[in-house]
Amino acid sequence: MNKRNHNVLFNTHTVSGIVISFALYVIFFAGAFALFREEITIWEEGKTKTHIEGKDIDYDHILKKLDTEYELTGRDIQFNIETQANKLYVSMDVSKDSLASEKGKEYHYLYLDINSLETQSYTEYYSLGEFLYRLHFFDQFSYIGIYLAGFVSLFFLFAIVTGVIVHWKKIIPNFYAFNPRATLKRLWTDAHTALGIIGLPFQFIFAITGVYFCLSLLVLIPANFLYNGDQDKLIKDLRPESEVIEWVKKTDQNIPEFNQFAQQASDRWDNFHLKKGFIRNYGGTNMKYILNGELESDQRFIGKGRLSYTITKGKIEVEKDPYKTVYKEDVQRVLGRLHFADYGNIAVRIAYFILALITCFVIITGVLIWIEARNKKNMSISQRLYTAKVGHIYMAICLSMLPVTALAFIFVKISNGYFEDKLTTIYYFYFITWLITILFFRFKRDNYFTNKCSLLLGAIFGFLIPIINGFVSGNWIWDTYINHQFDILFIDLLWIIIAVFSLIFYFKIQPQVKEQSAYNKNPIDYKNIASLKEEERQLTSRENIDSTLASESLETEKNNSNYITMKTKIIILWMFIILGFMFHHIYGLATVFFNESVFIEGSTGETPFWAHQWRILMEGLAFLFAVLTVQLSQKWFRWVSFIWAIIVALFNVYHVAEAIMHEASNYSEIWILLLMAVASILLVINLHKWKKENN
Q1: Most buried of the four, 469, 508, 571, 681, by CB within 10 Å?
Q2: 24: which strand partners?
Q3: pLDDT one-digit tens code per residue, 151-188
Q4: CB atoms within 10 A of CB 443
Q5: Are 680 and 544 members of one domain?
Q6: 227, pLDDT greater than 50
Q7: Are residues 348 and 336 in the same domain?
Q8: Per-residue pLDDT for 82 more than 60?
């Protein structure tokens, strides 16, 4: 690889990694604990749970109770069977029966205890495990959070590929040459490369599956072409159990027993465990039962099965044999198993947990390398301040998650049973505590202190977690072991191990490490920032008097490690425009979910040729110019790129004005169009500069 391509890939890897680093750290740190979501919920409740198989649940008794309280006739009902926590997640859609009462026309989403039949709303049953799981894909940011997580995963995939290419020749030497006593920058670089390559397969899997689950809307774009816009057929193929069946009328017959259906479904194949149950048109003449289940993962990695019972046919039908592979259904399950580690035993999830924390360390070392490399005497005070500020903020956000999460475990244990709206309570406590901690570390302006303090507090709170659990719930470690409460025991032991390692790292990090830092060798005097900037301004003014010195200054800037080449800027701006067009299409496809139709007046089910033309002219050509810019630098190509960028910029500016005039209420679309217009204008400016170079 020549030096230019290497620099382009290196800068791209650095920029993409820095942009997403803190968000990616949150995803992996929260995701690590989300692997034990059910165990955390059981630990929080502090009650003994007995494992109940799906076939042994008294569904008919549950349905009778729900019918009394919520009037089930005409509803579509879904059960998620969480046998480990002895809970059923129940979703009850509004009744389709036009004669239903007001009680039947209300949507309900609740948890039901299998033994006591007590129900709790989602906010009442909310747990810290659920919170960390939702934080894992930014669900707390309504509507846009999951898309943000998706694009972070997409850029993470990009950073992985460019990182492997850039470090390819140094991977093996750095792996064996890792020396904890080397200079600080060398230490972070070797650790970043060595640990990054250890977790590479895991990280690659998570990047791919994360993009799929968080940006699943993008699947609809090619899928609509394949199905000629027939969304009903698309949904039926991808998720057959989600098929919507029209309501006919209420039945006069006795409703078939769901218990018998569940027993027969479970007994049909050995080691077949029920996972989800669906009832379509409860109490109707065309009522249908559906049960999803899986074989043991050690028996078959993907053993997904489905059976149904339709009242009009009066017999059980096999819709999906777990021993037969159906690509359209099973490929989604493969991605799910790889992402959530719900195969094998708990050892698999522990391995995922360790690899997730290793990835967090790789992210941190990447940021530290960037900070160390950009604090040099030949850099301006403004550049050094910016780098230091970004480093302080990123370190504060990332490292503070350990003590805040540990403290949150203590809080939910002490406060358990005192708050009805647990969702809001956990939100307020976690985010306010996290914000205060971030602000404290940010304005402390000392990454060494942030690291040491986070490790010490994490260790202290980690050791307190099993002690608080013992005092509050009486679930001391020795008692949970004797009583076989292994879910509760596991969480206590997990935090003890985390606390032990945190304490070890706390004592291993000595002041000598701080002395090796570039910010210790070249400190920034924060008390005299104004005078430093004034001295620099005067010095810069004197240097800019002579044009020759100005030229030399430009050359110095280009040689600066913080400098981004013009081609890299242009490629990134082209990519932003491509993503903008994709976002625009996604917001247009929102009607798939809100209106349940993708047809427009006069449509025939086939995509017209003009639609393909627009797609090719917009994101297609933008992608082409981004690719060609990697290889071409000739004068004619710069001119062609410049002219086409002007056309795209004019189109995007016009599109913004049109959207404001005709779709003023579509805030999300106007926002993304405005960002596209800004990116287009910046692209034109940079292409104009590039065009003038070496002329």
Answers
A1: 469
A2: none
A3: 888 888 888 888 777 767 666 666 565 555 555 556 66
A4: 11
A5: no
A6: yes
A7: no
A8: yes
Q: What is the pTM of this model?
A: 0.74
**Together in a domain, 498 and 531:** no
Q: Which residue has the higher pLDDT, 604 or 412?
A: 412
Check whether residue 363 and residue 471 sit in a common domain. Answer: yes
- Annotate 350-380 with three-state secondary structure: HHHHHHHHHHHHHHHHHHHHHHHHCCCCCCC
Q: For residue 108, what are the CA distances in angstroms to 72, 92, 281, 383?
A: 11, 5, 16, 54
Integer Cα distance of 62 and 71 in angstroms:
13
- Cα–Cα distance, 586 to 78 (Å, whole number): 28
Q: Other CB atoms closer than 10 Å to residue 475's CB: what's the count?
A: 23
Residues with Cβ within 8 Å of 695's Cβ and at least 6 positions away in sequence, in order, are 635
Please state which of the ranges 260-269, 581-590, 645-654 shows the lowest mean pLDDT: 581-590
Identify the residue whose tokens are 């047809």: 599
Question: Nearest CA to 404 among 380, 377, 439, 370?
Answer: 439
Tokens of 665: 């209420």
Which residue do the tokens 């003590």 mark?
Answer: 403
How far is the C-alpha of 294 from the C-alpha of 560, rounded, in Å?
Answer: 57
Q: Is 117 helix (H, G, I), strand (E, B) or coil?
A: coil
Q: Which of 340, 364, 397 is the endpoint of a domain? A: 340
Query: Residue 506 corresponds to which amino acid?
Result: Y
**pLDDT tens figures, 454-485:** 999 999 999 999 999 999 988 899 999 998 88
Q: How far apart are CA 174 and CA 190, in angstroms?
A: 5
Sheet arrangement for strand 272-280: 119-121, 108-113, 87-92, 77-82, 272-280, 288-295, 304-310, 315-320
User: CB neighbours (10 Å) of residue 168?
Assistant: 10
336 and 350 fall within a common domain: no
The SS3 of residue 694 is coil
Residues 104 and 135 in one domain: no
Domain membership of residue 228 (yes or no) is: no
Single-letter amino acid, residue 318: V
Distances from the Cα of 122 to the Cα of 75, 112, 424, angstroms: 19, 10, 11
The pLDDT, as a whole number, for residue 539 is 64
Average pLDDT over residues 237-259: 82
Q: β-strands 87-92, 304-310: how paired?
A: unpaired
Query: pLDDT at residue 132 above 50?
Result: yes
Reading the block at residue 638, the tokens are 């710069």
Is residue 221 in a domain? Answer: no
In sequence order, which residues have a C-beta less than 8 Å from that of residue 425 and are 6 or more positions away? 415, 419
The token pair at 273 is: 């465990």
The reply to whether 307 and 332 lie within a common domain is: yes
In the predicted model, is pLDDT for residue 603 greater than 50? no
Residues ≥6 apart with Cβ < 8 Å to 486: 480
Residue 97 three-state SS: coil
Q: Is residue 387 part of a domain?
A: yes
Interval 335-394: pLDDT, tens: 888 888 888 788 999 999 999 999 998 888 888 888 877 777 667 777 778 888 888 899
Calculate the alpha carbon distances from 276 to 95, 243, 244, 266 in Å.
21, 15, 17, 12
pLDDT for residue 600:
43
Nearest of 682, 675, 457, 445 to residue 571 by alpha carbon: 682
Which of 513, 542, 559 lies at the terminal end of a domain, its last residue?
A: 559
Which of 95-104, 269-278, 524-533 shows the lowest per-residue confidence on average (mean pLDDT)? Answer: 524-533
Q: Helix, strand or coil for residue 314?
A: coil
Q: Amino acid letter at 588?
A: G
Indicate if 361 and 492 belong to the same structural domain. yes
Average pLDDT of the chain is 80
**Rounded CA gap, 686 and 187, in Å?**
37
What domain range includes position 551? 526-559
The count of structural domains within the chain is 4
